[in-house]
Design brief:
Blueprint: H1 2-7, H2 10-21, H3 24-44, H4 51-62, H5 75-109, H6 113-116
Helix pairs in contact: 3-4, 3-5, 4-5
Transmembrane segments: 26-43, 55-77, 84-104
Subcellular location: Membrane
Domain Potassium channel: 30-104
Amino acid sequence: MKANLKKKKPLQVLWHIVKVTHFSKFILSFVCYLFLAALILLFTEPAIKTFGDSIWYSFVTSTTTGYGDIVVTTAIGRIVSVILSLYGLLFFGCLSGIVVTYYMEMNKLLPKEDDQK
């Protein structure tokens, strides 16, 4: 197992983390809500003219970047934006926590360089 960990590429390790923790379900739900929110905003917000703009706004809002190039004005748009922000905070917080915990556990399993000498 130790040799397999050393041979894996970073994306393979990340995919392994996602499979082991079943985080793929959370990723799928996050992406689905991102697209659903984009559709809702496309039809309810006068400032959003294209689906690309609504995807952009949804992504920027979920990452809590908020450039301000598009601003929602309706009550539905604001509610969807608040949910996107909260969902994004949960998603990215859980993602970083899972990755850090996984690497800490792998660090416990790998032998120390001092132990090998």
